[in-house]
Amino acid sequence: MKIAVLIQCHKNPKQINQMMNAMRHPAITFFVHVDRKSSIGDELLRGADVVLLPDEERVDVQWAKISQIDATLHLLNYARRRGDYDFFWLCSGQDFPIKSAVYIVDWLDTHKNHDFLEIFPSKNNGLDHENNYDKRNAIYFPDWMLGKGAWKRLTKRIYTEMTGGYNKTFSLFRRKPIDGMRFFFGSQWICLTCKTLNWMIEYMKAHPEYYQYFKNCNCPDESFFQTLVMNSPYAELRMDYLHYLEWPTGKSNPKVLTIEDYQKLVDSDKLMARKFDDVSSKTLIDILLKRLED
């Protein structure tokens, strides 16, 4: 059993080092993508089991844009070229394990034929009408419209209403799906088997239009890989993703976990949790570290 843990990060190097130290195991190798805007690379651990992507592989990651996919593809391909890994597990620098490295390796070994990813409900998989997830892929979003700025959000909202609203798309604006695919949506924090990843890479080589389509989707990181997996020969082997998260009502970001959440993490059957902050979550991280070492 060999696991490539792929880490996308841009801040909190001490916390990332604690995460990697807590997960160190002969079966685990870390591949780390440091956002091109960040300078934390020199503060991260080095070793035979920690591989930092070189500068030419680093991406300036922008929220809601294809750059999120680019960073993940760089990690997946870089790790794939450097070892025969059974799993490729995408994590954030603000994640932290809630199970020991031994438990994680043994658990994945018993589920070695499965991919792990979340799937949101949408028209394509459970609802009888479009929703805001479907809308992300249904229309063409110009690159300049995507992002976090207030004026971008306002422009995007107006554009969405002009094209039919969140729960409908006028036929004039609807894009044709790639290769007749159904779209699926979910958290970007996925864990893929080698066989599924190999299938995905070959599919994208044969269908470059797939990547081109997603260049003008909104938040493509929450659909790109989910759609590939669920349209692959391995869709029936999917299990839920490996992360514990809490989403406050009406918020667009997960809750930052604190010591008050400790018991929920201990009781969870997930392997990893997020979101952690090196200040607000310091006490929680310290206690988790001690528990994982015992």
Strand and helix layout:
Layout: E1 3-9, H1 13-23, E2 28-34, E3 50-52, H2 67-81, E4 87-92, E5 95-97, H3 101-109, E6 115-116, H4 132-138, H5 150-162, E7 191-193, H6 194-206, H7 208-214, H8 224-230, E8 238-239, E9 243-244, H9 262-267, E10 272-274, H10 282-293
Parallel strand pairs: 1-2, 1-4, 2-3, 6-8, 9-10
Antiparallel strand pairs: 4-7, 5-10
Order of helices and strands: EHEEHEEHEHHEHHHEEHEH
CATH topology name of the largest domain: Rossmann fold
The 3D shape can be described as globular
What is the CATH C-level name of the largest domain? Answer: Alpha Beta
Number of extended strands:
10
Strand order of the largest sheet: 3-2-1-4-7
Q: Write down the Rg.
A: 19 Å
Mean pLDDT: 96
Question: Number of DSSP helices?
Answer: 10
What is the structure about, briefly put?
By secondary structure, the chain is of the alpha/beta class.
Overview of the molecule:
- The protein is globular.
- The model has no long low-confidence stretch (mean pLDDT 96).
- The chain has ten helices and ten strands.
- The chain folds into two domains: 3-112 and 242-293, Rossmann fold; 123-179, no CATH class.
- With 294 residues, the chain is of the alpha/beta class.
- Strands 3-2-1-4-7 form a five-stranded mixed beta sheet, with helices on both faces.
- It has helices at residues 13-23, 67-81, 101-109, 132-138, 150-162, 194-206, 208-214, 224-230, 262-267, 282-293, and strands spanning 3-9, 28-34, 50-52, 87-92, 95-97, 115-116, 191-193, 238-239, 243-244, 272-274.
- It is 34% helix and 13% strand.
